[in-house]
Write a structure and sequence with these properties.
The structure is a single chain. With 226 residues, the chain is of the alpha/beta class. The chain has a single domain (5-215), classed as HUPs (Rossmann fold), CATH 3.40.50. It has seven helices and five strands; from the N terminus they run βαβαβαβααβαα. The protein has helices at 14-25, 43-55, 98-113, 135-148, 150-153, 169-178, 203-215; strands spanning 5-9, 29-36, 59-64, 117-119, 159-161. It is globular and about 55 Å long. The relative contact order is 0.18.
Length: 226
């Protein structure tokens, strides 16, 4: 009997690479989905391709959505600076509707594939204040999926899998190491350079570096020279 299929949202960062490894460890046949949404750099998409290839997914697709066309985020509008020190409230790196759109794309592909499971690497502890990384949002989206899809109304609801949602960054890294994730393939930085090297200053870099330190794992991240 063939393994059940799952669509895994794969950004190319540390968390999504770990979520993919967890899905594979649960014997899902994995289909990876990345989204080119107008982000500041292509390094994370290059990383997603590396991670997908290393994981041996059944298919990896990159879909395109122009979130830069609406702006409103430091990740899609280069006139808005990426903060290099901690901020309060929802940071300017929040991308309006990003996870809603990405989950919707994953949901559509899952329905075509006959996959009942969608994995996303959201986290409520190290989530930088993004409202679309909270359990309440995930539960609401799962309800939407049950109402708005053929499979859902026919009594086959989708499971939005969030295996990292309550783990610390150190716990995520330890789990990924246990599962054989090569974090040297990943890029988490909000403003990586053309070679994929991390700035070491943005919120994502700080969380990543602190996570490796707390996990007692050597940090494989390539940083830009000071």
């Amino acid at each position: 009997m063939a393994n059940a299929r799952a669509v895994v949202l794969l950004s190319g960062g540390l968390d999504s690479a770990t979520a993919l490894a967890i899905a594979r460890s649960q014997n899902f046949e994995c289909y990876a989905l990345s989204v080119e949404y107008g982000q500041r750099h292509s390094a994370e998409l290059d990383a997603a391709r590396r991670v997908a290839a290393a994981a041996g997914v059944s298919d990896h697709r990159v879909m395109r959505v122009d979130l830069a066309g609406i702006g409103g985020s430091a990740l899609t509008d280069t006139t808005i600076a990426v903060p290099e020190s901690p901020t309060t409230g929802i940071p300017v790196t929040y991308v309006p509707a990003r996870n809603t759109i990405m989950l919707s794309l994953a949901l559509g592909w899952a329905e075509v594939l006959g996959a009942a499971d969608i994995f996303i690497g959201v986290n409520v502890l190290d989530y930088s204040g993004y409202p679309d990384c909270r359990p309440e949002f995930i539960a609401a989206f799962a309800h939407l999926a049950a109402l708005g899809t053929k499979a859902g109304v026919e009594g086959q609801p989708y499971r939005i899998q969030t295996p990292l949602i309550r783990l610390s960054k150190a716990e995520i890294i330890r789990e990924g190491v246990r599962l054989g994730v090569d974090y040297g393939l990943t890029v988490s930085c909000y403003q990586a350079d053309g070679d994929g090297r991390a700035c070491g200053k943005c919120d994502s870099c700080r969380l990543r570096r602190a996570g490796f330190m707390a996990a007692g794992v050597s940090d494989p991240t390539r940083y830009q020279p000071l």
